[in-house]
Amino acid sequence: MQTLNLIAGEWVGAPTGATFPVTDPATDDVVAEVPRGGAEHARAAIDAAAAALPGWRALTAADRARPLRRLAELMVEQRERLARLMTREQGKPLAEARGEIDYAASFIEHAAEEGKRVLGEVIPASRPGQRIVVLRQPVGVVAAITPWNFPAAMITRKLGPALAAGCTIVVKPAEQTPLSALALGELSIDAGIPRGVINIVTGDAAAIGEAIFADARVRKVSFTGSTEVGRKLMVAAAPNVVRLSLELGGHAPFLVFDDADVDAAVTGAIKSKFRNAGQTCICPNRFFVQDGVYDEFVGKLAKQLQTMVLGSGLDDAVSIGPLIDDDAVAKVRDHIEDARARGAIVRTGGEIVRPGPGLTARFCRPTLLEGVDASMKLSVEETFGPVAPVRRFSSEAQAIELANASPFGLASYFYTRDASRLWRVAERLEYGIVGANDGAPSTAQAPFGGVKTSGFGREGGHHVMHEYLDVKYVSIGITEPNA
Ligand code: ADP
Rounded to the nearest whole angstrom, what is the distance from the C-alpha of residue 374 to the centroid of ligand 1? Predict the structure, then answer.
């Protein structure tokens, strides 16, 4: 297991020698100690990325694609080892961790291919004697600041396109899950990615963040995390006018219309809401079900939830792992208690338990709440736990109004079998991502990202390449030979 940081191709500790522990959220066992770096450490990583930039940028896209593809292959070849490491530091069930490794690798593979299709333009000129050419060039040194809920994929969806575009990178993974990041760093060396192109630093987030934004060589920061930290980064980005991509919180609505395939909606609800114990930014937080199918949907969903197994993610039978830490537990408990105090009824679940010997008391039973209303905390704040609050609606217009009544705009979901309604609702939902009869819309081929306070910028698809490219317009004056 790699526990040191990667700077300029060397494995190093923090300059002070300080470390912090990475713990298994299922058991509280210390998995490893990793460097607690600060500003100086971050600057060393930026130095390395800046030094590696000219060489990496000068390669052809095909020459950059080759080691990137190799990195994706190595991840898939070593899926089992990487998945076990991820489950230990993050807690998610092994099957999900294995899925995440493949998903994470797919972002690198896709970006490596897209890098070859970064096209310029020649535009008809405005006057004789002029030619207009548009170049797309790498922005330069990039920093990625990533969260703990997808320890590998949140990095590769930034690192893949950044490198494919010709940028070099400093990665600051979440303090809860640095080991998956460091393992990726090791594989990047085996894959032949040159020294300094990828640098990974762990430690004091605020100090590292400050050093990143203070350094004019960093031209772009891509962040996935909370809206609260995203706002701070916007302020920090102002002095050097640093480009940002922000993928922030969500509060996804999930609508089930009378004409839906209810079984498909239940399957979609399980996938979207209960994956990673409800700790994803695209998890539905508000279920709205039309009167005609309300009882059927709620009955079937409750039955499914009662079959889910809590425990250590390393146990293959487990479908719900622990919440990441005690703060997460406190928030989920608070949301459930607040909803109950305001009149919600627990149809199933509702408890936070220690599911077995040697395990922590950080496991939330899959929960379905009825009688929910807009006054409850979970109707306005992201819960980040396996809690599905359900409300009724009677008309399409009402459903859209309820769905859009949120400052967030990341993901949304709805189920219908009416083709016209499918188009109407998809167009009216004020969200960056719409799963229409689909509970798992994320994929490397498609642009992922939000509107409103869920942020801006897109990851995936060909769209992500633009996040790491500057547009340069070259106006060329030419003379014609005298006739
Ligand atoms: P979450 O709620 O998912 O933990 P956060 O927004 O707190 O989300 O964290 C996401 C990432 O942002 C993590 O890597 C964390 O260390 C980092 N982070 C937190 N605060 C700051 C900050 N002030 N500056 C830079 N990065 C930060």
Answer: 28
Residue 67 has pLDDT above 80, yes or no: yes
Quick one: tokens of 126? 């405005």
Ligand 1 atom at minimum distance from 228 CA: 6
Confidence of residue 480 (pLDDT cuts 50, 70, 90): confident
- Residue-wise pLDDT tens digits, 148-191: 999 999 999 999 999 999 999 999 999 999 999 999 999 999 99
CA–centroid distance, residue 102 to ligand 1 (Å): 25
Rounded distance from Cα 226 to ligand 1 centre (Å): 7
Bridge-based pairing state of the strands 252-256 and 284-290: parallel
How far apart are alpha carbons 45 and 51 in whole angstroms?
10
Alpha-carbon Rg for the chain, nearest whole angstrom, is 24
Residue 250 Cβ < 6 Å to ligand 1 = no
Does residue 458 carry a pLDDT above 90? yes
Query: Of 79, 101, 99, 92, nearest to 25 (Cα)?
Result: 92
pLDDT digits (tens, 9 = 90+) for 233-251: 999 999 999 999 999 999 9
Residue 399 near ligand 1, beta carbon < 6 Å: no
Reported pTM:
0.98
Please give the single-letter amino acid code of residue 355: P
What's the mean pLDDT in 300-317?
A: 97
Cα angle 300-306-310, degrees, rounded to a multiple of 5: 140
Q: Is the pLDDT of residue 394 over 70?
A: yes
455 lines ligand 1 (CB under 6 A): no
For β-strands 252-256 and 433-436, DSSP reports them as unpaired
Q: How many angstroms is it from 161 CA to the middle of ligand 1?
A: 22
Q: Is the pLDDT of residue 481 over 90?
A: no
C-alpha distances (whole Å) from 23 to each of 87, 175, 177, 359, 364 are 11, 10, 9, 13, 19
pLDDT digits (tens, 9 = 90+) for 343-352: 999 999 999 9
483 pLDDT band (50/70/90 cuts)?
low
Q: Is 65 in the pocket of ligand 1 (CB under 6 A)?
A: no
Q: Which of 146, 180, 224, 229 to mutate to test the pocket of ligand 1 (most atoms within 8 A of CB)?
A: 229
CB atoms within 10 A of CB 316: 8
State the catalytic residues.
247, 281
Q: Are 153 and 104 in contact (CB under 8 A)?
A: yes
Please report, in angstroms and rounded to a whole number, the separation of the first and last CA atoms in the chain: 73
Residue 329: predicted pLDDT: 98
Task: Identify which of 219, 120, 115 has the alpha carbon closest to the alpha carbon of residue 474.
Answer: 120
